[in-house]
Specification:
two-stranded antiparallel ribbon, globular, 505 residues, 3-stranded antiparallel beta sheet
């Protein structure tokens, strides 16, 4: 994955990934549910590869100088990405640096490749990866530290741990000595041949993990939470068990998000893992509410741009509430009761519809604005007495910015006229929260993320935004399960190893 824009430059404009401050609660929830993974740790084999790279640096350089480590890790990553692009370009999609090498790798007349020029200017453009410390430093370091695979040797230089990390590194070295030697030679000389790339790809390609190898058995043990002294083990094992239960129940195509929210079939009554499922449901509630509020955020921008003169916040909130609530006399509780959807599946599906509406920069249709009211009210009415879920949300809520904050607001205004409640909710959770979050980003990082600004109590200079779900790692967890041969890649059903793990859980 390449990054060409510096989002931290003072005064720069950024669209802002969390303009209402709700995603932070979602991240805190899913981080505890799938520890040891991130949204971009996309293949299981990277963990063993990076253990091997860190171990090689320890053995060959005997230093903690940061500049030496930066050069080493960047060349290792670039060499592997090139090798895999040469050997199997389809399987290399998503690898850090694969896009950089695509053109050169496809030119069969090019027999030797330079690794120095694409890696020697960390942090600058026109490199295989702009991130100074490589893909490892940007996306894998924190997870591998958390799991106990590596440890800090100095501020940004690392060593493998004496047991788990080194065992993985040794497994890679012993099972693929020729490819490892070729890769180290390429890193040392800064050059690599096409034939060496093919050999390295055949042995070390992230898609080619041999399930019978010692390396694969160790990675599978980590994934299943079977390694001693791994603080991430229990939570990841339980989430993996629930994901595999979905695979077992569905026996075909499925929407993993939908299944973990609805929790039907075997999943609804697991012998263990109930707390895990409650926490997953809390995560999805926060996501659905956030989607609905983002629809209103774009709507308030659209309304502010439609008026010929600057409009007061209270006026715009009231105008939007008039679209969002058709019954001007019903109480908040009565309206919620009348709007509550028949099933959890319908709530998920409405959330997906609203996501599509807010994934483009434009004024939402009235149906989406009304749909946001329906979704928020349905969520509140269905779950307002579910104290276990609300407790999970409450623990991860800061300054009321989560679905729990919205639920608490609706609790307090349940007897009030729904039209007035929604107007107040828009003012508090859309207008005020956005201005607060954008102001904090501007003050601390120099990023101008305002969707609108406030001038004498009026909203001006509105700009539409795009919103998508947070990515709660479950997609990568599913990929890791395939990598570990728990799910058959060709059929999509549980393998014998997957069934064995599920039955033993």
């Amino acid at each position: 994955m390449t990054f060409g824009t510096d989002w931290t430059k003072p005064g720069s404009f950024s669209a802002g990934r969390d303009p209402l401050g709700f995603q932070a609660a979602s991240v805190r929830l899913y981080t505890s549910l799938v520890p040891g993974l991130t949204n971009v740790t996309n293949r299981l084999r990277y963990y063993s590869f990076y253990c091997w790279v860190v171990w090689q640096f320890e053995k060959t350089h005997h230093t903690t100088k940061e500049d030496k480590w930066i050069e080493f890790i960047r060349r290792c990553e670039a060499a592997l990405a090139l090798a895999c692009q040469v050997g199997d370009p389809a399987g290399a999609v998503g690898m850090a640096g694969s896009d950089w090498w695509r053109h050169d790798a496809a030119d069969v007349a090019q027999k030797v490749f330079d690794l120095v020029e694409p890696t020697n200017r960390p942090g600058e453009d026109n490199q295989y990866l702009k991130a100074k410390y490589g893909n490892f430093g940007q996306f894998y370091t924190a997870s591998m530290l958390e799991m106990g695979l590596i440890e800090s040797a100095s501020a940004r230089v690392y060593a493998v741990t004496g047991s788990a990390g080194r065992e993985l590194a040794v497994a890679v070295q012993e099972e693929h000595p020729k490819a490892c030697a070729l890769l180290m030679t390429a890193v040392k000389t800064g050059r690599i041949s096409r034939s060496d790339c093919e050999t390295i790809s055949e042995a070390l390609h992230p898609s080619y993990l041999d399930p019978t190898s010692h390396e694969a058995r160790l990675l599978k043990q980590f994934l299943e939470g079977g390694r001693a002294n791994d603080p991430t083990a229990d939570a990841r094992r339980t989430s993996l068990r629930n994901v595999l239960t979905v695979v077992l129940d569905t026996k075909g195509d499925f929407d993993l998000r939908r299944e973990l929210y609805v929790q039907a079939g075997t999943l609804c009554n697991p012998p263990r893992g109930t707390e895990n499922l409650i926490r997953w449901r809390a995560y999805f509630l926060n996501e659905f509410c956030h989607i609905a509020l983002e629809v209103w955020l774009n709507a308030i921008v659209g309304l502010s741009n439609q008026v010929t003169e600057p409009a007061l916040v209270d006026e715009l909130a009231a105008d939007l509430a008039s679209i969002a609530v058709s019954d001007k006399n019903a109480s908040t509780e009565k309206l919620a009761e009348s709007l509550t959807l028949a099933s959890l599946g319908e709530e998920h599906d409405l959330g997906a519809e609203l996501l599509a509406a807010v994934s483009v920069k434009r004024m939402p249709d009235p149906s989406a604005i009304i749909g946001s009211t329906k979704l928020i009210m349905s969520l509140w009415f269905r779950w307002k007495e579910a104290m276990q879920i609300r407790d999970e949300l409450r623990r991860e809520t800061v300054d009321g910015r989560s679905v729990e904050g919205v639920f608490g607001f609706l609790d307090l205004h349940s007897a009030e006229t729904a039209h007035l409640t929604i107007a107040k909710l828009i003012k508090k959770f859309v207008v005020s929260n956005h201005l607060m979050i954008a102001g904090q980003k501007l003050a601390t990082g120099g990023r101008f993320t305002y969707r609108f600004t406030l001038d004498d109590g009026c909203l001006v200079d509105g700009e539409f935004g795009e919103y998508t779900y947070t990515q709660p790692r479950i997609g990568n967890l599913l990929t890791f399960a395939r990598d570990a041969d728990l799910i058959d890649v060709d059929t999509g059903i549980l393998s014998a190893a997957g069934m064995e793990f599920l039955n033993a859980a």
